[in-house]
Structure formats: C-alpha cells, structure tokens
From TrEMBL:
The keyword Metal-binding does not apply. PROSITE patterns: TPR. Keywords: TPR repeat. The keyword rRNA processing does not apply. TPR repeats lie at residues 220-253. This is Tetratricopeptide repeat protein. SMART domains: TPR (SM00028). SUPFAM superfamilies: TPR-like. It comes from Pontibacter populi. Pfam families: TPR_16.
Length: 446
C-alpha cells in the first residue's frame, strides 16, 4: 500500500514538474524582436509601409506557432535587409541571428529552410566581421547543398576577407557560373579591382547594376559601387550622373548623397560637401559619413565640431562592438585619421591582424600607422603583404612610394607617388598631402 502511494505521489510530482516546466518555458521563451520605427526620409516611402505590413504578418504567424521555422527565417531575412536600409546594425543583426539560431535548433526544420538559414547565418557573420566563423558556416551550407550560387557568395566573401584570394576567385567563378546576377557580378568586380584590373571591375559592376531592378536597395548599392569605380578612374562627371540617377530611383538612398558630397569635397567645395554629408548622416547612422564630416570640419578649422563628431563616432563603434560587431579596423582608422593617436590605432590594427594577417586592407592600415610613427622598415614589411594582389589603389601606391622614398629609394618612390596622383589627383589625406609636399620639393630642384 505504501509503495502504491509512493508511486502515485511520484507520478503526481512528475506531472507537476512537467506542467511547471511547460509554463516556465512558455513564459520565458524569447520574445519576437520588434520592428523599429524608421526615422527621417526613409520613413515616408511606400516601401516602408509594405515592409511593415510584411513583418507584422510574419510576427503574427510566429506568435500563433512558435515552431514556424519558415516565418522565422523570413523575419530574420527581413531584419537583415532593415539593417542595410536603416543602418541600425547593432539592433537588427543580433535580432536576426537569434531568429536564425532558433530555426537551426529545430531538428524538424525542412532541408531547404535549414539550408537558407545556414546561408543567412553566414551572411550575418560576414556583416559582423566574424570571417572565420562565416567560412565554417559556409562550408556547412555547402555540405547541405553544393548546387546553389548563394553558398559560394558566402565562401567567396569569407575567403576574401581572410586574405585567401586565390580561393575567393575560385568561389566567385563558381558562383557566377551557377547564377550570373547582381551579387555574383559584384564579387567578380571587386576581385578584379583588387588585382589591378579597374576597367574589368567597371564592366562587371555595370553588369551587376543592369541585373538589378531599379529602385531596390541592392540595385542602388551596385550603382553606388559603380560610381565609386568611376571616381577611381577619374571620371567625376560620370560618377555624379550615377549618384544622381540613384537618387531619382531611390530618393532616400543616403550613400548616393554621400557620394555627391565626396565629389564636392574633391572639387574643393567644402561647404557643399558638409551639407550633403550632413543630409546623408541624418538619414542613416553610417560611420563613414561621420568620419568624412569630422575630416571636413578639421579642414575648415572647426575643430570643436570635428571633436564632437569624432566622440559620437567612437561611441557608435563601442555600441557596435557590444552588439558583437568586430570594429577593430574601423577604430584603427578613426584613431589614426581623426585623432592622430597612432599608438591606440596600432592596438586595434594589431587585434585585427592577428585574426586575418593576409588581408591587404589590414596590412595597408598597419603600414600607414607605422609610417606615421616613423618606422619605415616596419611599414615596408606590411606593404609587401598589402601589395601582393597588384592593387592599383592610389592611396596604397602613394603610401608605398613615400615609404620607398624614406628608405632611400628616392627615384622609385617619386615615380610611385606621381603614378598614384595620375590615377587620383584628388587625394587629400595626411599621407597624400605629405606626398604632394615631397613632389613640390622635387620639382623646385629642377
């Protein structure tokens, strides 16, 4: 009898424990990340109304069925797109990643949903600058389905950022062979650019821009990148026409307005440049707009304004870091270019170098820092890695020329500097200004 009572009590306790666990889990499930209200010009478009309606519909489906992996995936993708449109990266990328992880944790997720979720996770990791993690995630997606173009986009980007350039080329070729579209052409374009083929890069990006639907954010991004390539070619008129076309098709696209601001700065119209960059910064919280504004205010002697913007910029980087976004390289540039704090810049640049020692941009940054610190031999050691792809980036060529000059190779150094200004006569940073001074002294001796 006592044993039966004991069994009964045990069963009752187990049922009670299960019920408690059910209620606890139900009450402690992660809430659906809410949609943030857009602000400023991007809040008045019909696209925003459609986006809100679609996201609210997905949120409703998830509230009704917590196991709806398809809706969670679609909501994560929508939040990834909102991050691009609004610049609210610290909020949307972690929110999207939480949703993706919930999908991948479900053993009953359909194979196609699991594949797309894995791709989305890799893309988020790339956006957060978690490049090694993105490479592993890309390989997991490839194991799920090696016939889709999207997986090779993740693998291309991850390898590229890690400095595995030959592997990145293979992945881009594979991607474009499966699906020649905006995203695959864009990757081909960038790889051509960093390997010194600017004309080929322009042709590929023109294909990318034509492959997109006018007015969509992705198409505007491709056109903006194309405008940047025209600038590097020295065709400021065609660049301006490209940015203006973007704004006709997508009036709230802040990067196009920033592009026009950059063109005004190059032509010496500093006040107009400040106006355009300010409008862009008031549209989305994009760090590059703040950096350019700080530089321009220093140029006009408004150092107090420059310091205020720099302080806000660094605070924004800290917020991004707390959200899981690795911002070491961006911090290095901010401390180097805006604060002239080369020791602090070096600290952040070395953190990034330890993660991806073969990346040409990381090595270029370290070379620039050591140049400012007067350690030309050290700068040269990083330049050897930064120039491995034969990039014709004028800033890189200019830095390389200055370092060569300082190391005693004066003729070769001057030639590189002259070549850099023939490619981009509008360079106006600290290194470019020192190079201009060097050339003036050289010409005065003739």
């Amino acid at each position: 009898m006592k044993r039966e009572i004991l069994y009964t009590l045990t069963i009752i306790l187990l049922v009670a424990a299960a019920a408690t666990a059910f209620v606890y889990n139900r009450n402690h499930e992660k809430p659906i990340p809410p949609l943030k209200q857009r602000q400023g010009p991007i809040s008045t478009s019909s696209e925003w109304l459609n986006t809100k309606a679609a996201i609210e519909g997905l949120q409703y489906k998830i509230r009704r069925d917590k196991g709806d992996t398809q809706s969670k995936l679609l909501l994560a993708l929508a939040y990834m797109q909102e991050a691009r449109v609004t610049g609210e990266h610290p909020y949307y990328y972690p929110a999207a990643l939480d949703l993706i992880d919930e999908v991948l944790d479900r053993k009953n997720a359909a194979p196609e949903v699991r594949y797309e979720a894995t791709i989305a996770k890799g893309m988020i990791q790339l956006s957060l600058h978690k490049f090694k993690e993105a490479l592993e995630t890309g390989k997991q997606a490839q194991a799920l389905n090696a016939k889709r173009a999207s997986v090779y986009g993740v693998l291309c980007d991850a390898n590229l950022e890690l400095g595995n350039y030959n592997e990145a080329i293979k992945m881009a070729d594979k991607m474009v062979s499966i699906r020649p579209d905006l995203m695959s052409y864009a990757r081909i374009s960038y790889l051509r650019e960093i390997h010194g083929d600017l004309d080929g890069a322009i042709k590929a990006m023109e294909l990318a821009a034509r492959a997109g639907y006018p007015g969509l954010e992705q198409t505007s991004w491709a056109m903006y990148t194309l405008g940047g390539l025209y600038e590097k070619k020295g065709d400021l008129k065609l660049a301006a026409l490209t940015y203006q076309q973007i704004l006709r098709e997508r009036p709230s696209y802040a990067f196009a307005k920033g592009g026009l601001g950059r063109l005004q700065a190059k032509q010496g119209n500093t006040r107009e440049a400040i106006k355009l960059y300010s409008e862009a910064a008031n549209t989305i919280p994009e760090f590059s707009f703040q950096q350019e504004l700080a530089r321009l205010y220093h140029k006009t002697g408004e150092h107090k304004k420059a310091k205020t913007i720099t302080k806000e910029l660094l605070a924004g980087f800290e917020e991004d870091q707390e959200a899981g976004h690795d911002m070491n390289l961006e911090l290095a540039h901010a401390y180097m270019d805006l604060e002239q704090n080369y020791d602090e810049a070096l600290t952040f640049a070395m953190k990034e170098y330890k993660k991806r020692p073969a990346n040409i941009d990381v090595n270029k940054t370290l070379a620039a820092i050591y140049y400012h610190k007067g350690n030309y031999k050290k700068a040269n050691s990083y330049l050897k890695k930064a120039t491995i792809t034969n990039s014709q980036d004028p800033g890189l060529l200019c830095l390389n020329g200055l370092v060569s000059y300082k190391l005693g190779h004066k003729a070769a150094g001057e030639k590189l500097v002259q070549h850099s200004f023939s490619l981009n006569p509008f360079m106006d940073d600290a290194i470019a200004n020192e190079a201009k001074s060097l050339l003036r002294k050289s010409y005065s001796k003739l």
